Amino acid sequence: MEFYNELLKQLILWQYQINSYISTTIRSIDDENSIYGSLLVIAIAFLYGVVHAAGPGHGKALVSFYFINDKQQSYKNAFKIGYMISAIHATSALIITFGIYFIVQKMFRQNFNDVTTLAMTISSILIITVGFYLLYSAIKDRKDKEKAFTNKANKSQLAIAFSAGIIPCPGVMTIVLFCIMLKHFVLGIIAAIAMSIGMGLTISLAGILTVLFRKKATNMIESNGFYFEIFGASLIIILGLFLLVVNLKIN
Amino acid sequence: MKIFLLVSLYFLSLLAHPHTFIEIYPTIEVKNNKTTNIHFKWKMDEMTSSMLIMEFDANGNGKIDKEENTYIYFNYFIRLGDYNFYTDIKINDKIQKSTRPKNFKATIENFKICYSFDIKENYNIKDLKIDFGDTDFFIAPILKKEFTKTTGATAKITELDNDFYFGYRLELTKGN
User: Fold this and answer.
1) Residue numbers of the domain that contains A118
2) Predicted ipTM?
């Protein structure tokens, strides 16, 4: 706990510094230093993504719970889901930022809040659905061993990535909007991509650590495999319910 | 299994992470060991500010006019009362819920949105603790010794370990 609190504090202070540094760098870009300045912004955006996603949120818990259930125990799958989440996360942020900015322009913040609330509600319902799907699969699998497993795994991976990634990342949105306001449209998009690559790395790590945990505890899990699947699916349902309740309570 | 469940539940409670950074500049006047005025100035990070300026500076003249200030006060600032303005003023460890900020003023300084306001209460500094933080962890307050000014007392700043979010505590001791 002590270590986690210290890490949390450090992550905040790093983000505070990077946030300040990135805005100063974007503002300082002019005709003379455009290439160097832009490359620097892209590099900082990547680092910001790594640090930003290391803090709470961004679907790391969901990915971990999912991989409790993953029979393939594949690091590749962990990377795949991590990057699917971050890609959807950044894409939704880009679409919403550009959409709201060019269609509405004013009242950005209020529109952003409305869209985020809606996205969080959809995301929570999707997470609960995925949880129930995994629960159903675990029970069905017990009766019908390993049938069409791969196809089902792909479907649930996409569902997990979509349900966690649909919430636009406010961190990406603020960088993109800041670039748009300073007329650096292309840089805004590239910075969002760089940030999502950084976030994908961190989110993937959550999945990789769970896969590693599963591999280490293979004997125990294999003998209690069914219960672990029920446990993982239940955690996903609880996470979805929790997000839904908190979201409805806040709004 | 129990530990794993506890760890999982711990992660469930961590929903957000800071997207907005607010530097807090307190100026506190103390007379006879009692506060006479607590003035706060918040400076928001430049990226959040750019988003807010787009809405706040309705006429685009680069400053916050009187009508715009009123709009910000009613539509944004006063709503932060739900979060106790990210500032728990504690007397003998009891949060003073009735405290209301006065003289609110929003400005734009170096591309940053700033909020200034006063807490005009006479608190005994011996019993006073001021905690800064956001339980939802959407904003992160940043408080440094060099941001703080006091007259009639000395400020002490400590980091607050709130388990799920990070904050600061400001306390006052006698003398300058």
Assistant:
1) 2-250
2) 0.81
